[in-house]
Structures are given as structure tokens and as C-alpha cells.
Amino acid sequence: MHEEELSDSDSEASSVDDHLVDPSSINLDETFFSQTFHGQTIASQKDADVCMQDEVSEHYGPEDENAITIEDAEQMNQILTQVSDYDRMIKEVNVCNESLERRRKEMELLQQTQIDGFDVPYLLTQTEDVQQQVPCAEDDGGWEYVQNDCTEIKHNIQIIVSNGMQKTKRVLNEAEKLKRLEQEFKRKLFLNTHKTHLLLLIAYGSRINQTVNQSVTLYASELYELIGNSDIAMSEIVNLDFVQSITTHYTTVMKHTKNDPSVLRKRNTIASQFVSREVTSRKMLNVILLTLLRFLSVRARLVMNLDVVPKHPPPVKPVPKEKSQPTPPENFNCAPRYGDVPLTTTEILKRKPEIQKMFQLSQLDGAEDEVVSNKKARLEPAKPRKKPTTNQTIKTRDRQSTTNEIPSLPHQPSSTSNESAKKTEQTHRIPELDTWIECYLEQERRWTVVEAGLGCTDCLDLVIDRILAPPLYAFAWEADGTLVDVSPRYRWRNEQLALRNRVDAKWLQKTLAPYRPRVLDEAYLQEKFEFRQLKLRAPRPTTIAQCKNHPSYCLHRHLQKFQAIYPPDAPPLGFVQGEPLYARECVHTLHSREVWLRHAKVIRHYEQPYKVVRTKLKRQPADLELFGYWQTEEYIPPEPVNGIVPRNAYGNIEIFKECMIPKGTVHLKHYGLSYICRKLGIDYAVAVVGFGVHAGGNHPIFDGIVICKEHQDRLLEAWQRHQDEAAQKKIEKKQTVVLKNWVKLVKGLLVRRKLKHKYNFEGM
């Protein structure tokens, strides 16, 4: 039995020996070793190596140890290492190919979604060369691909693909750039000139108002003599009859002789005119009446319509090109004719040279030929002559004013267009009236307009007809020097045009802030109510274009992003082309929760947003909820707990208004308090007082800190000690620097002295 097993093992060993090859005879450059190994891994290769080693160890017993040498084993290990490295490289290449294929598919998908990526000629070629499947007549079970025969003649086709996704930017040349810069400079120059002129006129009105106040005390005796012999019934309460009686008596006493607008520039003008009882200008007539009214304790104010230079530059009209008129064909009778009318048979015959020679023969008697009269064969229809513009200008001026102090000269047409342009620029319409008076009636509780030239009160419409319409800046000066903008009382007829030509409202409000009245009394509130009532007297707009930016009316289509109409069931005042017309008072500005918090307001609970819009954020577009003032309530700041100041989500405290300071805390704005608080262990929060804009983005503005009141005294004492120590250290540091500089100077002098004595330098 044992012999049989030995014989079997010998036979198996002999069979293995038949398949083994000498390692030195293996060629690694053959195609066998260049195959790709897609399914193999490093682990499987190692398992194969282990199995091969096990087989070798099984087939080669200890008696055959000399059959494989050490060099053969090392060469075999080297081969297996190269095979594993090759497998790893193949796997890396396959991964790279897969990533490239995936990237190529993404690019193809992207090109399919974009119109610009289409290759139009290639697509047309593909559609024209489509192969159609036609069933074969011989074999019904199969299909044969047959190319579609093109029976029509192919023509050259031009395809224009419009790229509507990209906007072509217009490239400006140097001339257009210079023209735009010039226009921008001219626009800014006109705006700055407009503002400067407005400031000068405001100062001029304040000077006149101050002169009137001084005249009340300086010329009290003359004013008393002016009304001494009158029948004016004095009353404790100022009413319309009292003001009317003063105005009537004044117009009978004072006489207007001539018009001299520069009379107010001279000194002692009012005194001389009091004595002579004659005024030299309509403005002076109203100024003296204002002085008299203030002398009688009537609340009267000086109103001036400031004629400011225009804010916008005048439009440049293009120079009309001279059209060359075609010369009519020469006629034999020297008479002009229409170019479109065909020639008659007689005219054609007369144009022949033979016929012309016959007519050009001189007379037989030697007398001169008669001159042919220039008679028109066919007369053109007479054009209607334009009427002279003199009568038209006179009529329009008569409509605007009934009493013209300056006569209007007849207009003579100029010979050249340049002269007419110069005359047009020089002519400037001088208003008939630019100064008048407003008096407050205590009994009627309203303001009335008084004008000495007209000699009446409540003459609002008459004054509007005699001033520059619409007035841009109508300002009123009180006796105490305050300034009130009363332009809405006089511009209600064309308020939209007046607002367009005025300066920016924010700039004007900031300019008039020093002159604004400190206390708003009942007269001021009644005046505001009157302004709103006057807006209703203006004619309603009839077109959609007139409704845009209208100060009194509004359409729903013209609402801005943060505007809405409240109440939602507001009754329309009318309809414009089928759209409801609402009052401007119904248009309200909405804000988000964060913006209302800056106004010390919070949204009430269970309030739904009145309007939802899209935010301006491009990275995270979302819906923004907007609320109106009727959905808000006052902000109640939280109180500190255990000495801890309440904070927001960012660790700060928002103090946009004084009422937002929490109860029991104090807002300190001293420099360097946060360092002292950290040193003493006092809890504090940095105060955010607003938001600023820089580089196109908002950023918070910090000012001071907020702490509890019980730590205020201790903190301020420590801060004062710290400031004193810092000042003392600064002085000591400065003294140290000064001492070091003196030491350097003294050492330098000693060195200089030693060198001088040692080397005998004469120049030192």
C-alpha cells in the first residue's frame, strides 16, 4: 500500500515537471505579459502567489530542494512584483478613463442645454442624411436600411442664429465719451449753480425780514402817524375785517410812483418813503405794509417767490440741415413748372433745336425783340401766410396779467437765425409779483393772503396768476426769523412740474433745518391741513403717464416694491382708462421686521405679512415679508437679569433710539470702557446704533457699551484712574525720550571735543 502511494506521488511530480519552465528562458516582452487585468486586484494576486508557492512546496518535497536554486526564487519574486505593479497601473489608467468619460458626458449634456453650443451645420447635416427604414419586398420578416433619396435640388441656405441670451455691450468711441463727460460736467455745474443761487436768495430774504423788524422800532412814530387819522377799529382778536381795513387805508395813503427794483439796496429807504408817502416799487409797497401790520401786533410774515436759475441745462436743439431743392427743368418761356407734370406736345416741339432756331431769328425791320414776360404757365397754390406773432404774445400776456407795468415791444423777425437765437436767450419773463404778505386770522383760525398792489385780502388766485407759475420756492419769514416752505399753497395747479424742477428734498430739508420753527403751534397744523385741501382743487390726471409720480393721485401699477395701498378696500377717486385711481394718502411704505426694529417698532403677534417680495440677495434668494405701521406696536426692551445685559443673536445690543435702552441699564460712550469692564469683571454689551454702507455692503456702527446702573460709578472711577495713569505714562515716556536725546547730544559733543584736541581739527 505504501508503495502504491509512493508511485502515485512520483507520477504527480513527474507530471508537474513536464509543465515547469526555466525562469531564465522567460521573455517578459511577449504579448502574454501585455494583457490588461481588469478583474484582478492586488489581494487576488497575492492569493495566487500563495497558492503557487503551496503547490510548489507540495510537489517539491525535501528531497527535491536542490531542483530550484535561490537565484530562480528571487527572479520569480521579481516577476510577480512586476505583474502586481502592472496591475496597479492598469487600474489607475481605467479610473482616469472613467473620469474623462464622465466629464465628456457632462460637457455634452451642458452643450445640449445651451443654444450657443449647437453646431447648426452639423445638425442640419444629420437631419438631411437620416436613414429611413423601409420594409424589403422580398423578405417581409427583415428590414433594410435605405438612404433617403433627395429629389429636390439643393440650394445654398443661409442660416442666421440670433443669440438672445448675451447682451452686446455698446462700445463708445472717444468722441462719445468726451461728449458724455461734457454733459455730466454741465449737469453738475447747473445743479451747483442752482443750489448756490437758492442759498443766496434765502439769505437775501432773511436780510429783508431783519430790516422790517428793525423798522418797527426805529420808525414807530412814522408808523403811528400813518394810521393816526384813520377809521380803523382796533380789536383784541385779529380777524379778516381788521386786516382788510388796514390794507384799504394803506393803499389810499401810500402811492406807487415808479418801478425801481434796486431800491432796497439803499440805506434809509424806508424812512425817506415814510416822509414822502410814495414808494418806488411794488416790493417796497408790500414791505412797508408788512412793517405796519407787525407794528399793530398782527402775526404777518414776508412771503417771497425765489426766482432761481434752472436746475437742468437747456436742451440742445439740433441745427436743421439745409435741404437742397431740386432745380426745376428749364422752360422755354422762362416760367417755372412742376417737375412731376409731363410735358405737352407743344413744349416738346419747342425744345427741339430746329424749332428753337426759328424762334431765335431776329426781326426783319431790325428792331429789338420784345422781352418775354415771366408768366407762369401753371401757378402753384398759394400758401397761407403766417400771422405775425406780435398780437399773439400781447394776448397771452394780457391773460397772465391785467396790469403790465413794463410795456411789451412788438417783435420784429430777425434776418438771420443766429440773431433770433440770441434774442430768445436774452428774453426772460420778469414776473409781475414776487413779494407779498400772509396774515394769520385768529378768529377764523386760518392764513390769508394780502397784497398791497391789489389792495385786498384773500387774493390767493390773483397772486398765483401774477407770479411765475408754478412757483418752485415760495418761502415765508416769520417775525422771529423762522422760515416756512409755503410752496404747496401756490403750486397746486401744476405741482408735478414744480417738484420735478426743485432740488433734492433731503438736501433742502437739511438746509432749512436751522430756520425751522422749534415749536409747532396750531397755526402750523391748520396750514398743513389747508395744503392737503388745496391738492384736491387741482385737475385730475386723464392719462396713465400723468398719474406716474403724481403728488396727489396714484395707480396700482405705479406702486414701488415696498409700497402698498391701505386700507385694501380704499375707495377709488375715479378711473383712468379702466384702472382705479387712488389718493396718494392711501399709499404707505412697508418694512420688514428688522427695519421696523430700527424704528423701535415690533410686529404684533399673529399678524400676517401685508406684502411678500423677493429679497435683493443674489446668493440666497428668498421671500421677504413686509408689514405696515398699523401692524406694529412699541418696542419694549427686555430687562437685565442677575446683572447680565440682554443681547441679540450676535452678542450685541441694538440701541437705534433712546427708548430702546433696557430698564436698569445705562449707555456709556467713553473711549476704552470695554477694557476696564473686562479687567473688573463687569458684564457689558457693545451698542449697535445704526448701519452704514461701504463698498456696496451694509455694516453695523458701534458706539459705546451698555452696562447695569449699579456698576456705573465704579466703572467710571476705574476708567478715570486708568486715564490718569495712561496720561502719566505718556508724560514719563516723553521725558525718557527727551533725556535719551540729551544724552546722545552730550556724548556727541564729548566725542567731538576729544577728536578736536587729539587730531587738532580746525573746522570742528
UniProtKB/TrEMBL annotation:
Q: Which residues form the Rad4 beta-hairpin domain?
A: 536-588, 590-638, 645-719
Extract the SUPFAM superfamilies matched here: Cysteine proteinases
InterPro entries reported for this sequence = BHD_2, DNA_repair_Rad4, Papain-like_cys_pep_sf, Rad4/PNGase_transGLS-fold, Rad4_beta-hairpin_dom1, Rad4_beta-hairpin_dom3, Rad4_BHD3_sf, Transglutaminase-like_sf
Polar residues: which segments have biased composition?
A: 401-419
Return one GO MF term.
damaged DNA binding
Please list the residue ranges that the record marks as compositionally biased, kind Acidic residues.
Answer: 1-11
Say which domain of life the source belongs to: Eukaryota
Tell me which UniProt keywords the record has, alphabetically. Answer: DNA damage, DNA repair, DNA-binding, Nucleus, Phosphoprotein
Record's GO cellular component terms: cytoplasm; nucleotide-excision repair factor 2 complex; XPC complex
Q: What is its main location?
A: nucleus
Compositionally skewed regions (Basic and acidic residues) per UniProt: 420-429
Q: Does the keyword Phosphoprotein apply?
A: yes
Q: Carries keyword Phosphoprotein?
A: yes
Q: What segment(s) does the record annotate as region Disordered?
A: 1-21, 310-339, 366-429
The similarity annotation says: Belongs to the XPC family.
Q: Under which name does UniProt file this protein?
A: Rad4 beta-hairpin domain-containing protein
The protein's organism comes out as Anopheles culicifacies
**Origin organism lineage:** Eukaryota, Metazoa, Ecdysozoa, Arthropoda, Hexapoda
